[in-house]
Amino acid sequence: MQALLSFDQAPPIAAPLRFFLTAPLFAILAGMLLLWSGPELFASRWTPSALAMTHLITAGFMLPVMLGAMIQILPVVAGANMPRPLLMSSLVHAAIVPGALLLTAGILTSQPLALQLAVLLLGIGIALFLGAAGHALVSVRSTNPTIQGLKLALIGLSVTAGLGMLLAMARDGSFALPIRQLTSIHLGWGLVGWNLVLLAAVALVVVPMFQITPPFPAWFARGFSWAALSVLCLWSIAVGAGWPWPSAFLAGAVVLTVAVFAALTLRVQHRSRRARFDASQHFWRLAMLCLLAACALWFAADSLPALAERQEWPLLCGVLALLGGFMSVMIGMLYKIVPFLVWSHLQNLGDGRVMAPNMNKVIATRQVDRQLYAHVVSLALLLAAVIWPEWFTYPAGLALVLANGWLLYNLLTAVAFYRYQCLQIAAQSSATPAAQGPC
């Protein structure tokens, strides 16, 4: 797969980087919301503050990271060049950031105007991205599983966004919709149809390349994305039709796809040729273990009525899946993608006359390790806060703010490193940094 990568087709560094820098700010806001709401946030998964915090993580943190990753990956991996990527990324970013903020405010306050503006902005931003990405991919043949996964992930994003906008518009009671059923379908498509399918497609490239592992098995690479979306479609139909037994069986199949991906990724990662795991690999391992734990908890609640009756288990499952699983793996990806972006763009600026510094110098290893510890502490405190909210809610909120503030600091350090090296290269070779993006 690495032989197929076309780094000379990478977009300007500012295109994906603006999304990556935004994401930690929303996680910081999630921690501040936890501090403001207090233990009441954990009273139920349906409280306005719990729903708002969920969307700060999903629409505020996860969506920008995955959009930024796709902007970088599409031309490099698939040879799918978006027209005017810097302009497109600027417009998409300018729409989804205020859209996510308004969505959170609208959920918290139940203000129809905020929700309507959120739907408008998020709809415009996602539609622009889907149009640009779809236009770039439409003429690209699915010659490898990653390209196939990227195309299918766009379908998942379309369905997720459509359902989300419908639910947001229905919160004021204007539409007579089965809110809980649609919310479950929206959640399933967001986590599995969009994030998991895209993550699996990206993992086929980044895990072997950055973690020095064997490739994923051919059967998994060829069939996982199709299998995940097929099962998800059947489950959505069963839920929408109100078929209890088929929907329960297919829900288990959907959860099983998550478990298969997590278990297989751990197995591939275990065969890494690295003598010692770095922080990024530990983020991936933590994420896969949390996803497996979330799947195990779901199956336990499905089998044990006493557990299913407890209000804590959906919240525990959500924390494990969102913050422990997807958020952890995305942070691990950022710590590889951002230094690599900086290094590769500096290499292009040097034009063979000035060599870029080693990728490991972009962000100090000790800073990444410390942020990993802070993230683990925040995750542990959040899990404890679900069970004992009176004791752990405020420490968990503070830890979440600190951990993601540290992440933002590390990413800004990479930006400062890039700008400094741009000036150094320009001074040594009379190159023009603007050719590859603003320094």
Report on the structure:
- The protein has 439 residues and is mainly α.
- The protein has a single domain (2-436), classed as Cytochrome C Oxidase, Chain A (Up-down Bundle).
- 79% of the residues lie in helices and 0% in strands.
- It has helices at 14-37, 48-78, 85-109, 112-137, 145-170, 179-211, 218-241, 244-270, 279-303, 305-308, 312-350, 365-387, 389-429.
- Helix 5 (145-170) runs parallel beside helix 7.
Chain-wise SSE layout:
Blueprint lengths: L13 H24 L10 H31 L6 H25 L2 H26 L7 H26 L8 H33 L6 H24 L2 H27 L8 H25 L1 H4 L3 H39 L14 H23 L1 H41 L10
Helix pairs in contact: 1-2, 1-3, 1-13, 2-3, 2-4, 2-6, 2-11, 3-4, 4-5, 5-6, 5-7, 6-7, 6-8, 6-11, 7-8, 8-9, 9-11, 9-12, 11-12, 11-13, 12-13
Provide a quick synopsis of the model:
The chain crosses the membrane at residues 20-38, 50-74, 86-108, 114-138, 150-171, 191-212, 224-243, 249-270, 282-301, 313-335, 372-391, 397-418. Keywords: Membrane, Transmembrane, Transmembrane helix. 79% of the residues lie in helices and 0% in strands.
Written as H for each helix and E for each strand, in order along the chain, the element string is HHHHHHHHHHHHH
CATH class: Mainly Alpha
Enumerate the spans where pLDDT stays under 50 for 5 or more consecutive residues: 431-438
Strands, total number: 0
**What is the radius of gyration?**
21 Å
Q: How many domains would you count in the coordinates?
A: 1
CATH topology heading: Cytochrome C Oxidase, Chain A
> In the CATH hierarchy, what is the superfamily?
Cytochrome c oxidase-like, subunit I domain
Helix content: over 70%
Major sheet description: none
Provide a count of the helices. Answer: 13
Mean pLDDT: 90
Structural class: mainly alpha
Strand content: under 5%
Structural shape: globular
The second-level CATH architecture is Up-down Bundle
What is the rounded distance between the termini? Answer: 31 Å
Transmembrane segments: 20-38, 50-74, 86-108, 114-138, 150-171, 191-212, 224-243, 249-270, 282-301, 313-335, 372-391, 397-418
Keywords: Membrane, Transmembrane, Transmembrane helix
